[in-house]
């Protein structure tokens, strides 16, 4: 227990980031139970009220409580982002390990697809999908998994390549270890540390992408609350009701910062050599 | 060197062909009949009158031909730069994009310069000074710039500088002043990852023996930092800038929408809302191709700086 606490306090970034995430998760899960406002039903008599005791963040143009809407929006984004990133992390890690382990033509093909998907930025790809198919949560999910796996494949492939240089894989092969055993028992566990760190950071980045899409008007459709969408709606009333821009901005930035702080510190803590390997990762 | 450049060039071409293929497959598996949708959007909504038009449309665009012929035609048209006609304005897509290019390029170049300046200056300070108020401030900036989405920063800047203090315009394209807020927004957002990378790689280089030697022989610190450390930290920094080109594309779309900047990003957004299929594809292909070209250039630059790369030192 003591060891774990030490680990936790050894990096300020981890502590701060984890606290932010914890607060946001608890708020978004419990907020709707505790606060007596509905995030969707409009009440025009209360439109555009400034922050007060009854409405801590004020109300929007439809008279809905902004605080409740932000919390519901965070919940909406997180329940969507977490599974898509986890799925892409799984797919990407396996493909990356396979590419690094077998090398040769398999590696070439997988790496070609990594390069291909990297040159289609997620936001652009998502816009293309939405433009042709219209918006649906499933489409967005497909786009995210389609473009996020390459990030994980790149990292796990590089980890495997550097593990191969260390020679213990050769040794295990010499005493008769099979490929499946090597991949599942040695290569994947060994690449988990950077993958876990990357997963956390990627959640933050995905949050930015999804909320940007909603802000552009091609994501979740109103009246469903989502942080980017709240900002899109609030933008029109910026002159008279600046709180409609300020509060969602703070929440979005803090959520992403939480993920990125935790991800960065995990990267350094789980692998003290990380920064020395950085050069290798990039090439 | 020439061998390395040729190798990279072939790889880039392969990736661009791959993207064209990906989009072709995407079009073919898209549910619904694109021809019918286009006719319905463009000409008339009466089902009876549509039939003839749909058949004519298919004949005109060769949609009845076998798939490999269509694929071949698609590639040839792309090489010729023929991306079809916009459904809304009926002008060639390539002209539409060309007309918006100056706006996008000026935004992209100015914001890249801003982000380079921010990343270089702050990265060096972070690596060299490891305490003090300035260090804390830059550290905070590094976290902020990597967590703030472009549209949030853009809106906050508009709120502060245009709505509250009213000294900078935020919508339009008339004067250089209009470029200030969009390019700062994009520059700050883009500086996040290069800044982090430069910091880490400089810290790594600073621990090397040759830096200790340079200091021991009495070289002024400024020279040690600028000539020895910075130069040797340049390769990861440059490769991350190449990879950041993807963020530049997405950033351009978001920032141009926020600031109503009449560039290619805004064109893409309008095309998405108008369901202008050829225009969407044109913008996507344009974006992907420019990404590949930027990456090619930064890779070649890396090879120029670091002979180990062009000699294949890192590849097994």
Radius of gyration based on Cα positions of chain A: 22 Å
Sheet-strand content of chain A, in percent, reads under 5%
Number of helices of chain A: 11
The structure class of chain B reads: mainly alpha
Quote the average pLDDT of chain A: 82
Largest interface by residue count?
Answer: A-B, 52 and 64 residues
Number of beta strands of chain B: 0
Structural class of chain A: mainly alpha
Helix content of chain B: over 70%
Run of helices and strands of chain B: HHHHHHHHHHHHHHH
At the fourth level of CATH, the homologous superfamily of chain A is: MetI-like
Counted up, domains of chain A total: 1
Shape estimate of chain B: flat
N-to-C series of helices and strands of chain A: HHHHHHHHHHH
> What is the CA-CA span between the terminal residues of chain B?
18 Å
Number of helices of chain B: 15
| Principal-axis shape of chain A | elongated
